Amino acid sequence: MLLALEPLPASEGDCLLLHWGTAAAPKLAVIDGGPSGTYKKQLRKRLLAYLAASGKTTLPIELVMVSHIDGDHILGIKDLFAEVREEVDAGKKSAFQLKRLWHNTFNDVLDDGIDKYYKQLPASLVAAVGGAPSAALQGKLKAELAAKGVAADEAAEVSHDVASMLASQADGRELRNDHRVLFDANRTATLNSPFVDKNGKPTLVTAGPKAAVTVADLSILVVGPLADDIQALQTEFDKYIKAKGLTADAVVAAYADKSVPNLSSIVCLATFGSGAHKASILFTGDARGDKVIEGLKGAGVLKGATLKVDVLKVPHHGSSRNVEEGFFDQIVARHYVFSGNGKYGNPDRETLEWLTHSRGKGNDYTITLTYTVDEIDKTRKAYCEAHGTPWSAARDSLAPFLKQRRADGYKFELREGDPSPIELGDEQVPW
Length: 431
What we know:
Helix content is 40%, strand content 18%. Helix 5 packs across helix 6 and helix 7 packs antiparallel against helix 8. The longest helix has 33 residues. The chain has one domain.
């Protein structure tokens, strides 16, 4: 049995490769594609290496999933689909077969008028190219949040999230359009398949009464986003638009709540195998920890005090504003994956403090960082200083904290900047 997760270095973003099946017949999924440049620097090279090792002329990718539309998750996927579309338009055979896309593109699926809103947005609020968030909007949001008493570092992170989400609307629409071309050419399945209505029209990938779905023998239970939260988000947006008109102030007001930007992240529990060989991975995107817990309870998989999984992709690159210490008491893993290079302060030292404290000294587990501790600390320090936040190595750096934890008898294994897959089965990824 083969089940492995391969986290790729993706700057401040997520780019994860999921392998399952058997060594003789491996399957592949791509979960998020990182920010601009990740596809060319990391993802494309890995996919081409797999293709060469397979001996095939085309690499089947069973599932491509965008957890949500922030640029540090969607841009690599947009580049992947754009490349395949260009090859289809030119009548060429593509190196990659993109069999299924999960992407919560609201304007198509909900028919809620986001396109109309987006097209009317002032140019100062949306990105000109590449999903880069608007500096003007970030500054306005930071001022709004500061007026509400939000700390400077949190205000900076929240304002970036909100600006990125608005900027990424264009990227989400481009990805949707490229998928439509591939669908029309019979190169891929219906968007969000098998999440469709009775007429075969795509619906949002959300939690609900549905059982786990199966994708090429991989069981995937979607536990987020919660449908009620998505509807509430859209209702709130509509309310501000109708009441105040589509102005910068209205958009800021609609999205200034720090909980809003990441409510839409797809959260899912992937399991494969049976009996003693059954293993599980919890994908969380940038979801809030309390929403992850709520979704797991609603799906009936968190029935007691603790859910045990083999791998937990820690929410939002280890940001301390997305989880609390109790989160790690309720979800216990053999492997914890932190994507992020230190930009925007992620992963936060506080999150690692909560995790290690929760697990105590008597447990063996692995912490995987997609960059080395030194690289992360260097970037975190530069970020803090650029935003006027004092930096103390003793108080803020990951390196002395992790060293002291190990000296105090904590048994975790630290994997830093290691691109090798986290192997969960009795067979290994064959390439």
